[in-house]
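QUALITY CONTROL LOG
STEP: pairwise intake check
CHECKER ROLE: data steward
CRITERIA: each record must contain a sequence immediately followed by its C-alpha cells, with no blank fields

ENTRY 1 OF 2
RESULT FIELD BELOW
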Amino acid sequence: MRAWDCAADVVVVGYGGAGVAAALTAREAGADVLAIDRYLGGGATALSGGIVYAGGGTWVQRDAGIDDDVDTMLAYLEAEVGDAVSAATLRRFCEQSPAMIDWLTGHGVPFQASLCPFKTSYPSDDYYLYYSGSENSGGYRDLAKPRQRGHRAHGPGVSGKALFGPLAASAARHGVRVRTRTRATRLVVEDGQVTGIEAVTLDGAPAAVRRRFAALARISAKPGVYHPGLRNAMEALLARIERKHGTPVRIQAKSGVVLTTGGFIANGAMVAQHAPDYPWSQGLPLGTAGDDGSGITMAQAIGAASGKMDALSTWRFIAPPSALFGAIAVNALGQRMIDESRYGAALGAAVATSPGHRAWLLVDAELEAEARAQIGPQSVWFQRMQTERLLRMGRARGRTVEEAATRAGVDAAALRETVDAHNRAIDHDLPDPLGKPDDIRRPLRTGPFTLLDISFSARLTYPMPMLTLGGLLVDEDTGAVRAEAGGIVPGLFAAGRAAVGICSNSYVSGLSLADCVFSGRRAGVHSVALRGS
C-alpha cells in the first residue's frame, strides 16, 4: 500500500458548522487536527440564517429576562424530536445547551439579547432572540411554557457567516490546519480500523486554476443554484478541473476520522432512491453542492449503518408578515390542513401530504391589507421579495369565497363550509378545531377574498426549500459510526447532517445548527481517545 502523504491525529472531512466544532474541540483536547473541504469551507452553515436553538437558561435568555429551564425545554423538544435520538441524549442536549452558548460565545460568536415582539420565521435585523419553532402554537403551549430559544448570531441580513466565521478564526488561532479544494474519495481501512482517507487535492495546481475553482465553488455553493441542469453543469466543471489538475493524496488519521460532509439534498439520484414518493423535484434544495451524500456513501462502502434516509424537511413559511398566521391553509378539497401558526416545516409537511401537493392560504381584504403593512417593518430583504411575489403572482381573487375558489381550482362549496365553520367557532368562543390559539385567530368576512398559492408546484413564485435529515447511525455517547453488522466502525465518527441526530424527525429553526455544534463537539472529543495508542 502506498505511503501516507501527510498525517494528523484527527482528520475532519467537511468544514462547515459540524466540522469546525469537531476540529476545534479535538484541538482543545490536545490533538493535531487537519480539516479538509472540497470547496472553500463554511458549507451550508455559512449560508444559513445563523440560528442556534438553545435554552434551559442561556446567558442570552437571562439577559433578555426569559426564565427558561431544562425541563421546560425538554418537554417541548420531546414532542418535536420524537424517537430521532434516545431520551437520555435529548436530555443531555438540553442540559448542555447553556454551556454550548457559552462555548460559542467564548470562541467569538456574537449573540444579542433583543427579543422579537412578533411571531416570524426569521427576525429582522433589530432582533436576535425569538420563537424559532412551534413553542407558541396550539397544543405546544399546553405541553410547556413557551420560551424564545432561537439564538440568532448577531449580524446583518443572513447571519450564518457571523456564526461560522468566528469559529473558523478561533480554530485557526488554536492551530487547526485546513486544506480546502481537497475532496475525500475513500476511507482507508487497515486491520478493521479506519486509519485515514484518500483524497484529490488542488494544492499543487497553478494559482490561476485554483482561483478559477474557487470562483466556481462560490457560485455552486449558493442555495439559489438549484436548477438541476445548472447545478449539474457547475459540478461537471469542478470535476473536470479536479481530474485535470488534482493530485491524489493519502492522509493518515492516527486517532480518528470525523465525517461532517452534510446531507444529500444536492444529489437528486440519491434523494429519489430513498424518498421515491416525495415531491422533492418540485422543491428548492437547501444547502450547497457539497451536500451530495459523499461522506455517507463512503462510510456505507465500508459497512457503516444509516437511518432515516427517507426523512426530508420541506419549509413553507407564511410569515413575516405575522398577520398571515390569521389566514387559513386549505387543500384542493377546500379543507383546512393545520394550525397555521405552526413552524413552517410542519406546514410544509402538510402540503407534501395534501392531494396533488397543492395548498392555498385564504385571506380576506382586511387581513391582506394588514399583512402588506407589515412587510417592511418585519422583514429582511429575502422575506420581502418572497412575500411580494406571493401576494402579486401566486393568487386567485374573487368577490366571494366561492369565486376565489373556482378561479384557484378549489372545491368552492367545501371551502365555503370551511370558512363558515372557522368564523362560527370564533363568534361563539369555541376552540379552533386544529388548535390555533385564540389570540392568533381572525374571522374572514370582508371581500374580496384571495387564495395565495403555497403549493409545491409554485416553484417560480414561492419556492419550497427542502433538506435531508437522515444519515449515518452513530453511537449517541461518542459519535462513533455504527456498523451494519453490529458494534461500531473503529476510528470513524460522524456529526451534523451526515449523521442521524436531534432534528432527524422534524425540524425547527436552529435545531440543525445546534445539533451540528452538539454532535460535532461530541465527535471531536471522542475522536481523540485513540491518540497515541
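ENTRY 2 OF 2
RESULT FIELD BELOW
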Amino acid sequence: MQIENRSIDFIPEHERYGEPRSLFFVWFGANANITTVAAGVLPISLGLNLFWSALSILIGCMIGAIFMASHSAQGPRLGIPQMIQSRAQFGVFGAVVPLLFVMVIYLGFFVSNTLLAAQAVAAASPLSNAGNIALLGAVCFLVALFGYQLIHRLQKALSFASILVFGAATVLALTLPVAPEQWSLQGFNLASFLASVSIAVTWQLSYAPYVADYSRYLPSNTSTRQVFWYSYLGTVLGGGWMMMLGAILAQAMSGFSDNVGLNLVQLVGGSALLMFAFILYGQVAINVFNLYGAFMSTVTVIEPFAALKVTPAKRAGFMLVICIAATGLCTLAQDDFIQFFLNFIFFMSYFLIPWTAINLIDYYALRKGVYKIADIFDARGIYGRVNWIAIGVFFSTIALEVPFMNTSLYTGPIATALQGVDLAWMVGLVFPAISYYWLMSRRNAVPGVTAKV
C-alpha cells in the first residue's frame, strides 16, 4: 500500500486495473452508515407514515441513482476525475463556478457525518466531543491520503460488516411495535411525499460530483453497462435499505433521532467497544469520500491559475488544510442536527441538480462520450476558458428554481400556491437539459464533438 501518485491527471492505460463489480461494494459501503440511516428519519419528520415513507425512499433512490450511475460510467472512458471533466462543459476557468458549490457540499456532508459519529460515541469514548471530532478527522485524513486503492478496500470490508450489523438491526426493528396505520394507505400528503422523494433523489445525486473518481482506474474497454449497473445496484440497495431502516426506527423508538448511532447500536445489544469501532469505521468510510473529493476539487480550482504538480507532500498539505477547516465547521451545527440536515439537503439539490443535467446532456447527447483529454487541461484548447452558455444556463436554472423552493428558511410563491409542493428539483433537471442542448446545438459546431480522445 502506497500513497496514490495521481490527483486530477489522466490515468494512462498501463496503470488501469480492476473489475466493475468492485463498484457495487464501493457504493453499497458508501451508504452503509448512520448518516444514511438519519436521512431516513426525514420523511417521518415531514409527517409521512411508514408506507409512504418507504415508497418515497424507494422511488427517489431509483430515480436519483440513474443519474449517479450515468456519471460513474464516464470514469473508465475518460480516465479523469468527475469534476475536472466539467471543464468540457463550462470551460477550463468556468468550471470553477460549479466546483465552488460542490466544495460546499463536501464540507456540509463532512460536518453531518462527523457530528453524528461524535454524538454516538460520546458515552463510550474517553475523549471530549471536540476530541472525538478531531480523532475522526485524523483517521479520515490518513485514509484519504493513501487514496483510491485503500478506499476501495475499506469499502469492500465495510460492505460485508454492515450486512451483518444492519441486517441484525433490521430484523430487530421489524419486531418493534408500531401503530397499524403506519403501514396503511392513510395519511397521504402530496407535498410531504414529493419532498421525501426529492430528499432520496438528492441523496443519490450527492455522489455525482465524485462518482467517476472511483471508476477512472478501470480499463478503458470496461463495459459501460456493467459500470452503470454495479454502481446503480450498490447505491440503491445500500441507500434504500439504510433509509428505510431509519424511517422504521424513527417511528418505533422514542427519541431515535436524538442520537441515531447510539440508539442503533443499543438496539442490536452492542458493547461500547463495538459501538465505538463500528460507528467510527462507518463514518470514516463515507467521510473519506468527502475529503478526497474536496481535495480533487481544490486542485482542479487551483490548477488553471498555476502550474501545479501534486507531489505526495503537496497532497498531504492540501488534505490537512481541508480536513482542519472541515473539522472546525463541525462546531456550527450541533444544536439542531435534523433541521440543519434537512435544510442542507434541499440547499444542495438546488445547485447540484442543474450541474448534473448539463454534464450528462453534454456527455451522452451532444458529444456522445468523445472528448479531447489534453484540452481539458489547456485553457487555450477547444473547450476554451469560459463557456458562457453553460454558466448562463446554470445560474438561470437556479433563479428559476427559487419560486418552487420550500424549506424552513424560505418558501417560494409557486410552492405556496401548490400547498407546499417543492418541484425545484424537477425544474433543475428539465430546464438545463433542454436549454443547454438547444443552445449548444445552435452553434456552428459543438467544440470537441469531432475530436478524438
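INTAKE CHECK: passed for both entries
DESCRIPTIVE NOTE, ENTRY 2: Residues 48 and 192 are 7 Å apart (CA to CA).
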